[in-house]
């Protein structure tokens, strides 16, 4: 199938490596190398970066987080939990270092990037529980880093978007920290893999549909078979009934036209809207999965500007 990409993005797409989760070790190494070569955002105003070990789920040890904060702040600032992508099986805070610095600088928030555990070594619900532990820490002890516990949000990309969406449900059910907003960027939320975009968009940059069943198989290992009726809603929030979504925090959902995960993002935004959740939806035509990671393109810059504006507005930064 021929994909009409933005010319700047198309030029970059030709140089991007193809992920192949059938060889997970090689895919992780390729992702690590990409992380090392991504340009580092140099803030015009200083941003402090600190690694912190926070109490993890019972019996699981500490969770490592990386805290990005405007160095010249006065008073407290909103806190934004940031969950990286990687199909639930790859990634680390290093992958999102530049966008985290940019959010701290331009949105005026304190970013907490979570190094959650990955499948298949640590399948569902390990990554979600790590994310919840980090959120509880941000609310209870983040004040030492300048976080305002009354102004918390969560942002996730790809698989991190799936975790972020599930986290809003989990923290509500547990009576955990109140979240003001959820930012779901190309969220991976549906293990059934039967949307039109997943079926028809095959040879796409960054993320290929052939990887999705592998990723879901690793994430759900020991819990359920992907596509089965007993997959928990906290693992794949697209399975939630509309009434289960009522009362969740306001959302920004982002989707990309040339992306196998496009339709599950659009469908989940519709579910949130039907549930009465205030929801903004951004669909970027002629763009591939999380294309804002590509520096130096006009479309990527527009995506970043849109994100910064939404974070500032929805967290009242």
Automatic annotation (TrEMBL):
InterPro entries: AB_hydrolase_3, AB_hydrolase_fold, GDXG_lipolytic_enzyme. The keyword Hydrolase applies. Transmembrane segments: none annotated. Keywords: Hydrolase. Residues 80-292 form the Alpha/beta hydrolase fold-3 domain. This is Esterase. It comes from Streptomyces canarius. The gene is aes.
């Amino acid at each position: 199938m021929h994909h009409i990409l933005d010319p700047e993005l198309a030029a970059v797409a030709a140089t991007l490596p193809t992920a192949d989760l059938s060889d997970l070790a090689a895919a992780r190494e390729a992702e690590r190398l990409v992380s090392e070569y991504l340009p580092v955002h140099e803030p015009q105003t200083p941003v402090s970066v600190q690694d912190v070990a926070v109490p993890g789920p019972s019996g699981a040890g500490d969770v490592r987080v990386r805290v990005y904060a405007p160095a010249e702040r006065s008073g407290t600032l909103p806190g934004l939990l940031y969950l990286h992508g990687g199909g639930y099986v790859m990634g680390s805070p290093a992958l999102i270092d530049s966008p985290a610095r940019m959010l701290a600088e331009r949105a005026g928030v304190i970013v907490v990037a979570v190094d959650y555990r990955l499948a298949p070594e640590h399948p569902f619900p390990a990554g979600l529980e790590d994310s919840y532990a980090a959120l509880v820490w941000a609310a209870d002890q983040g004040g030492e880093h300048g976080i305002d516990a009354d102004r918390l949000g969560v942002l996730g990309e790809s698989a991190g978007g799936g975790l972020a969406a599930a986290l809003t449900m989990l923290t509500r059910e547990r009576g955990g920290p109140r979240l003001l907003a959820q930012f779901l960027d190309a969220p991976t939320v549906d293990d059934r893999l039967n949307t039109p975009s997943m079926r028809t968009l095959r040879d796409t940059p960054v993320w290929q549909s052939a990887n999705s069943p592998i990723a879901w198989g690793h994430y759900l290992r020991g819990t359920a078979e992907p596509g089965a009726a007993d997959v928990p809603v906290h693992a794949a929030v697209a399975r939630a009934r509309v009434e289960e979504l009522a009362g969740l925090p306001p959302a920004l959902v982002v989707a990309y036209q040339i992306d196998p995960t496009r339709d599950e993002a659009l469908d989940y935004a519709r579910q949130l809207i039907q549930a009465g959740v205030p929801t903004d939806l951004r669909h970027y035509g002629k763009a591939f999965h999380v294309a804002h990671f590509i520096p130096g393109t006009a479309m990527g810059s527009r995506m970043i500007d849109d994100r910064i504006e939404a974070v500032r507005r929805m967290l009242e930064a």
